[in-house]
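Let us practice reading a record.
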Amino acid sequence: MNKKQGQLLSERFEVAFNQVHDALRDIVQINDERFVVLVIVGSKKYQIIDTFKKDLEQYARLRNAIVHEKMEVGFYIAEPNAKVVHHIEKIANVLSRPNYALSIATKKVVYFDYQDSILQVTDAIKKYGYSKFPIYKNNNCIGLLTAGTIMKWMVQNMENGMVNLSTIRVADIMELEKEQLLEIVAKDLNIFEIENIFEKAHKKKRKIEGVIITENGKIDEVPLGIITAWDLIQIDYTID
């Protein structure tokens, strides 16, 4: 590798590192702008930062060697290899341009009206395998109906080992449903902002059952997607 190529790799690494640093400041938002501190704190709050934690800590050491040992402007004493540069550039791209929340949401949202027959819900459970359904009353989302609550109602109303659901409405079973914490957000939120919603609730020892995504984050809008904590766990942030 000639000198020109080597300088280009070093410069590209430094640019990508600075982009990562800027992104970490924006994401983590603490009163300490040190790179490694941002990585450590951010890794505890955001899965994506935790995924890259070890790499970023190593890149911080490499960056110190490259920048602080610089002999003169434009001349670097240490050289990253092309694979390292390519990788940190990909990380910078991911952190600087996070995906919209809708990209990880369950987009086929099955929801029901308060007065719908419960048989419609049980059919949906069988067809889609879902266990939670947003419920609307007067076009406003009022909560989630879960398969567990339906089962609880059936057990309580069983006679001779049988239960008749033909006349039962969603409203009848929603009476048993405990109050659940839901968030309704606009479709332009990104994944970091969604993770932050779950994190803030966790700090308050509250459990968010789901984040419903609508066009503008209004309670009376049609759901475009729904995200649960499980969806966040399933995100694959690995890059080549």
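A brief commentary: The chain has a mean pLDDT of 87.
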